[in-house]
Amino acid sequence: MEFELTLASISLLVVAGFLAGFINTIAGGGSMLTLPALMIFGLPADIANGTNRVGILLQSIAGARGFHKKGKLEPATIVPTLVPTLLGALLGSLLASYLPVTWLKPTLLFTMIGMAVLMLVKPSVVAPPEGTPTFTMKEKPIAVIGLFFAGVYGGFVQAGVGFIIIAALAGGLRYDLVRTNALKMAITAALTVIALAVFIVRGQVLWIPGLVMAVGTVVGAMVSVQFAINVPQVVLKWSLFVMVLIACVAAYFS
What we know:
The protein has helices spanning about 5-25, 30-40, 45-70, 80-100, 105-120, 140-155, 160-175, 175-200, 205-230, 235-254. By secondary structure, the protein is mostly helical. The model has no long low-confidence stretch (mean pLDDT about 85).
């Protein structure tokens, strides 16, 4: 399948990528913008799903590096979270590659509604109060289950996976939102490597639109890191909640 580069297509992909990169770094759901942007130019849902992972990978690397430079990402915390997440990502990407694309919308909608309800009923799950003690993976096995599910979901559909990772880290390990978002970017980068590899093998990645969009996602992630570091926790919490609601609406009408 070919993709025609025009000024309009480049502009749309870069702008959508920038917004997605910014949103994904402080919350999640940026793929609600990038997937439709790719499909506008005729990419089938499965090809768009695979191509989208190029920008996600580069944006996640840029975001994780930005948080690390600001002292908000501890390398020692990354490895323990990767085993369940990567196992889930491998399973999820295989499911996405072989199952009918009609499964994507109900999966996305169900997950986003569940996240919105959780934030309304018990907001402290995803936004622990300041001073809340944190835990390790060994101390809170529930986080292992949450990260495995996040991996499955991220490998399957990607859109909104940041919300699931946030719930696992903030809810299970009780990290604050800045630390959670920092680790989320590292986890997303790792699981995207697995998912992208599966889509490449299956011939479901178009590199030109993927790399064009990645220019925007990387810049958006870099700007978003500065924003996340400098605003109060309450701003991040409400940004997350608003993005969950928007994701619900987008999933319903997509």
